[in-house]
Design goal:
- Helix content is 78%, strand content 1%.
- Helix 3 runs antiparallel to helix 9 and helix 10 runs antiparallel to helix 11.
- The longest helix is centred in the middle third of the chain and has 33 residues.
């Protein structure tokens, strides 16, 4: 039964991702937003919110030490999953679509958007982690304030600069108003909300049944929390990105992943610093190091070659494999 529910949950997530991505693109058209704003902010924050609520609630409500540790672990785990499996899946989609892409193996992205995301992530994430090693409360508080300002600056730049999303004539009709070539904004917003709710429901159903299956297989909760559950919580970003890649909308697809990394690696640590005794969770060194290696590789090659190569993204799978090997040994 759990396997059947697992399949159903994946079907729900896929359907929800279709509804959400279509609606979020229409939001961009209605508000005259850039591709970076749609992918890196609206889609990224929207799909990252479900798993981000876990540390947020634990921090703000004053949960115990164990809850705080789970929240901090979630903040570290999210960028790790996105920069390894997220990159790998994106690269694999492009490779599988090679015959349909005249510029293979490169992705058709606005490199300014992706480079900006990487830059803001690396600076903010590094500062957030460094705060866990500093004893001076004033310095730690200043870092938290800076991170909030840093993310606000990122949002402002992303909204202001970049290519606009496709004209409405180039988009598929809004699913909730197919007969109308210029749907009302309220229908667009309704579709986005419905898609997001279905994404959350599908991801929760997936996590619950993965836990049941892991028990049947005799996996420990620790292994589950590190290797399986994070995959489920990041599924919305991955499915959204796959859909956009199949449609040739590479900036939206990659921005959905890198924008979520900025949100979870910059803004959430600032909240953790303010509301908790901010300390690095035991066992988190490996995913932190691998996150830097994976992001550093893609960012460095993007700076040097001015193009994003799908084979470079595939290296994320290798990094994740190293992590699994370390965890199981």
């Amino acid at each position: 039964m759990s396997i059947l529910l697992l399949v159903i949950s994946l079907a729900v997530i896929l359907l929800a991702a279709q509804i959400f991505t279509n609606g979020i693109e229409w939001i961009g058209v209605k508000l005259n937003l850039t591709e970076g704003a749609v992918g890196s902010i609206l889609a990224a924050v929207g799909t990252a919110m479900p798993e981000s609520l876990i540390p947020l609630i634990a921090f703000v409500t004053g949960g115990g030490v164990e809850q705080h540790q789970i929240g901090i672990g979630a903040i570290i785990g999210a960028p790790f999953m996105l920069s390894t499996l997220g990159f790998f899946i994106s690269g694999m989609v492009v490779v599988l679509e090679a015959r349909r892409r005249f510029d293979f193996p490169h992705l058709r992205v606005d490199e300014r958007v992706i480079k900006r995301d990487f830059f803001f992530f690396l600076i903010g994430y590094s500062l957030g982690l460094s705060a866990a090693l500093i004893e001076n409360n004033l310095v730690v508080c200043l870092i938290a304030v800076f991170l909030i300002v840093w993310y606000c600056l990122y949002v402002w730049l992303t909204l202001r600069f970049g290519a606009e999303v496709e004209h409405s004539a180039d988009l598929s009709p809004l699913y909730f108003s197919r007969a109308n070539h210029n749907p009302r904004l309220r229908f667009v917003i309704l579709q986005v909300i419905v898609g997001l709710v279905l994404l959350i429901m599908g991801a929760n159903l997936f996590v619950n049944n993965v836990e049941v299956i892991s028990d049947l297989l005799g996996l420990s909760p620790f292994i589950l929390s590190l290797l399986i559950a994070p995959v489920a919580t990041e599924l919305p970003e991955k499915f959204n990105s796959v859909i956009w890649l199949l449609q040739g909308k590479d900036t939206l697809a990659l921005g959905n992943i890198t924008g979520a990394m900025v949100f979870q690696g910059v803004l959430l640590p600032s909240i953790g610093i303010i509301f908790t005794d901010w300390r690095v969770v035991a066992g988190s060194v490996t995913p932190i190091v691998i996150t830097y290696l994976s992001v550093g590789l893609v960012y460095t090659l993007l700076l040097l070659r001015k193009k994003l190569n799908s084979f470079t993204l595939l290296a994320g799978g290798l990094f994740y494999g190293v992590f699994v090997w370390v965890m199981l040994h």
